[in-house]
Design brief:
elongated; five-stranded mixed β-sheet
Length: about 170
């Protein structure tokens, strides 16, 4: 009946609000994490993303660079990953630095994982040339949720009316 439908709608609304609150909380926690723990969490994410045994290449001011391999189809790509913790907007120079590292060290592609947002000029720099993938702020939150890093997924047992069975048993035809 209508009360069952209303209860179901209410449940879906609450689930959707919980999901959104989780995203907001995850994003906020990531931005306020210290460099060390953030780096460890990003390394876990890299492995879940299929980047095999990422190794530290170098550490700079507010950034750690890791090298790793990932498969794309049948090709193995060498990827240079920049991990940038903190709340500060990511400047254009960060993209240029990653691109230069990819070129100088003979990597195939670059990947940036950042807790904060890219500046408008950094975004322009990313789209100027292929070869750099970016997960910042919202995109980082989404990829972490997709790979279940920093969040847990629960399966809740819920009983609901088997209307198909009732219809089958009560249908005169």
């Amino acid at each position: 009946g209508p009360e069952l439908y209303t209860a179901g709608r209410g449940l879906m609304d609450r689930l959707s609000r919980t999901r959104e609150a989780t995203r907001v909380a995850l994003r906020r926690r990531l931005r306020s994490m210290a460099a060390g723990p953030f780096e460890l969490m990003m390394r876990l994410l890299l492995e879940r993303m299929g980047i095999v045994s990422p190794e530290l290449v170098k550490r700079g001011e507010g950034v750690a660079y890791y090298g790793g391999n990932m498969m794309r189809g049948s090709r193995s790509l060498r990827v240079l990953i920049a991990i940038r913790p903190g709340e500060n907007e990511i400047a254009r120079e960060a993209i240029g630095e990653l691109r230069a590292g990819v070129r100088m060290r003979g990597f195939d592609e670059g990947l940036l994982l950042a807790a904060a947002r890219l500046s408008a000029t950094a975004l322009t720099e990313v789209s100027a040339l292929p070869g750099i993938d970016v997960y910042d702020h919202d995109a980082l939150t989404d990829v972490m949720i997709r790979h279940q890093v920093g969040v847990r997924r629960m399966a809740l047992p819920i009983e609901y009316l088997d209307t198909d069975l009732f219809n089958e048993l009560t249908d005169p035809s």
